Amino acid sequence: TKSTYQFPEGFLWGGATAANQLEGAYLEGGKGMNLADVMPGGKIRFKLITTPGFNFEIDKEKYTYPNHDGIDFYHRYAEDIALFAEMGFKTFRLSIAWSRIFPNGDELEPNEEGLAFYDRVFDECLKHGIEPLVTISHYEMPLYLIKEYGGWRNREVIGLFERYATTLFNRYKKKVKYWLTFNEINGATHMPIFGLGFSPATEEDRLQESFQGLHHQFVASSLAVKACHEIIPDAQIGCMLIYAPVYAYDCNPANVLHAMKEEQIFNYICGDVQVRGEYPAFTKRYFKENGIKLDMQQGDLEIIKQYPVDFISFSYYMSRTEKKELTEEEKANGNIFNGVKNPFLKASDWGWEIDPTGLRIALNQLYDRYRVPLFIVENGLGAYDKVEEDGSINDDYRINYLRDHIEAMGEAIEDGVDLMGYTPWGCIDLVSASTGEMSKRYGFIYVDKHDDGSGTLERKKKKSFFWYKNVIATNGKEL
Ligand code: BG6
């Protein structure tokens, strides 16, 4: 379809991934174990790693571990980046596995083999004119820090993270100009294990402990911003939010107020701290009512104030609909958040509600509130793909999903939003984070790898590959 949208010159079209979901080679190159290495395949993974007393051990008798092999990007990165280049990517979002650089997380000296691996990856990108966009921490905390330090509960981790981030800035200062600190930082209160590396023992501890962990990450993120600007003056560094605009179920003011509060607590706390440089006013009451007392040290708030991020990046998969009083039946919706089913929306095969207009709303909300450039660094449709007899993969459902979301971006740009770029999630099929499946595919590139571990790892171009290539070539004029 022809469009009239005006995407800015130099708009960063690309795709997004995370180390633990595609690299594989989990014990190669001197890498230490990390959280993802002990997460089994299948829906059981989340329940298992959040079970109090979980020992963070591998049990191959009982489970499979798809992240151990990923899609073998560790060895096939050159081939994959060449395919991204063929699509015309301007940027490629990837993360660095902390435990490749500091295997335990608290060493004084980095692991040269790990550093050299990412040098090769960045060189390959730059050779093709692709700007790397690097997440410093994406759900892959070194296991040693989880077991011995208690994850981000422990204030000492701030200094360890600062050393890790500074090592990266020094090493890659000529190669990487776009950085993100913590993936989906605000997801911490919902899924502390992923971002913070611990599970609160009881539900009563959840808020206290996850906000304390978040506070440590805020300080760590600000210190990373400071170091990044000092070491790479021409770099930009952003925060990364999981963003789902919250709708009130109806115009009952009680529901509208409830939706507003959810929005404040989940969507805005982290952005407010990381962009505006201070805890928002509503936290005063919220912390008090929920018995949250943050242990802060002198200077923390000054650091946060002094070193805000340059831009906001976020993932967008769904909106959410909130109602104050829920019936049992209403609670059972498939979205990753609580809330009720939205009768106006269809959902993916995994129950994630599809809402392109919500992306336009999200962009307007974030830009109105913060007035800093925005970057959509994740979006996409997890779906079952079928390889036809002739080898083709006709993923029109994915094309339709992406087209609708790109149109929403185009509208938001006309609304006045400053949007830097768009990197759809899992541009090459990879292991899903929440369910550890290969069969939940997002890619433009199909990877022959299956839930039972079988597959040749061969890469195949889906129909969406050619479609997206043309979107980039026309800068969004043809969708
Ligand atoms: C985001 C994460 O929450 O969603 C990614 O940053 C993840 O790591 C993505 O893969 C999609 O979720 P899933 O569970 O479908 O892989």
Automatic annotation (TrEMBL):
The active site is at E378. GO terms for molecular function: hydrolase activity, acting on glycosyl bonds. It comes from the Bacteria. Its EC number is 3.2.1.-. InterPro entries: GH, GH_1_N_CS, Glyco_hydro_1, Glyco_hydro_1_AS. It is an enzyme of class 3 (hydrolase). PROSITE patterns: GLYCOSYL_HYDROL_F1_1 (PS00572), GLYCOSYL_HYDROL_F1_2 (PS00653). Keywords: Glycosidase, Hydrolase. It holds the Pfam family Glyco_hydro_1. Belongs to the glycosyl hydrolase 1 family. NCBIfam families: PRK09589.1, PRK09593.1, PRK09852.1. PANTHER family: 6-PHOSPHO-BETA-GLUCOSIDASE ASCB-RELATED, GLYCOSYL HYDROLASE. This is Glycoside hydrolase family 1 protein.
